[in-house]
Amino acid sequence: MSKFRKLLLPLCLMTVFFLVSGCSDDDSPTVPGGGGGGGGDAPTFNAGIATYTPPTLMQNSADPGATQSKIGIALVNSAPTFGNFLVPPTKSDPELGEKAGPWVQTWAIGGGQTIINVTMTITEIDGVYRWEYVVSGTDGENTYTNVLLYAAEAATDGSSGWLEFYDGPGEVAVMRWNFMVSGGVTTSEVLFLDGSDSSRLILVTNTDGSGSLDTYTGLPWTMEFAASWNAAGVGTWTEYNPNGSVSDSGGWGAPTAKNVLTR
């Protein structure tokens, strides 16, 4: 029941890297928000996704399926923190342009013989913002020339979008986060892409606290775990074998006439 616990460590390491990469040795004046010649600030990546908190009954349950679900929820809840790297350090150089963009901001990471120069470009087309994080320079071991490391898009109202991380010059996505909020239903999908070791988690939550979590492994995707719970926190789960057959199942909570699980 712990097949994607291993994802927690790289997730934490990526988040730490993003926070560190925001530290700049650039000595240019502080420019709050960056922005354009007309005084407009560069848009901030805002997914409009709130951290999901499971119902109390589910939080307190020691059932293996509830535990597996809570691990998955923790992973998905961490996804919005990936947007931290899209916030330039205050000591960044903005390229002045029109108030409506595009916005271009640059800063340096490191110093001496190991300097990475970052250029982040933000554009807006037809109600969608796009961020591109490009690096050049050397980290002491590798040299980069206009390499796209991260890209993201989001509707201007924050209701939907995606964010991707790339593995070097080939721009092969190694991680992707998709999100959508519509009609009181929030869908957040996290994908770790590594061939047969790939993992996919889809968390769907409702305003009343009910929700579901589906996890997949490998490519092509094969379901390995599914769980759902109602607003009271009563839930059921199923674990699958690679061939699609059920390997285990169960539930947590005590359904009553008022707390009946529906999915």
How many distinct beta strands?
13
Class derived from helix and strand content: mainly beta
User: What is the CA-atom radius of gyration, in angstroms?
Assistant: 21 Å
State the low-pLDDT regions, or none.
1-39, 256-260
* H/E topology pattern: HHHEEEEEEEEEEEEE
What distance separates the N and C termini?
22 Å
Q: Output the strand order for the largest sheet.
A: 1-2-3-4-5-6-7-8-9-10-11-12-13
Largest sheet: 13 strands, antiparallel
Strand content: 35-45%
Overall geometric form: globular
The chain-level mean pLDDT equals 79
Give the number of helices: 3
Describe the protein.
- The chain is mainly beta and 263 residues long.
- It contains three helices and 13 strands; from the N terminus they run H-H-H-E-E-E-E-E-E-E-E-E-E-E-E-E.
- It has helices at residues 8-21, 56-60, 64-78, and strands at 93-95, 103-111, 114-125, 128-138, 143-155, 160-166, 173-182, 185-192, 199-206, 211-217, 222-229, 235-240, 246-252.
- Strands 1-2-3-4-5-6-7-8-9-10-11-12-13 form a 13-stranded antiparallel β-sheet, covered by helices on one side.
- The longest helix is centred in the N-terminal third of the chain and has 15 residues, at 64-78.
Q: Could you name the key traits of this structure?
A:
mainly beta; 263 residues; 13-stranded antiparallel β-sheet
What does this entry show, briefly?
By secondary structure, the chain is mainly beta. The protein is 13% helix and 41% strand.
Layout of SSEs?
Layout: H1 8-21, H2 56-60, H3 64-78, E1 93-95, E2 103-111, E3 114-125, E4 128-138, E5 143-155, E6 160-166, E7 173-182, E8 185-192, E9 199-206, E10 211-217, E11 222-229, E12 235-240, E13 246-252
Antiparallel strand pairs: 1-2, 2-3, 3-4, 4-5, 5-6, 6-7, 7-8, 8-9, 9-10, 10-11, 11-12, 12-13
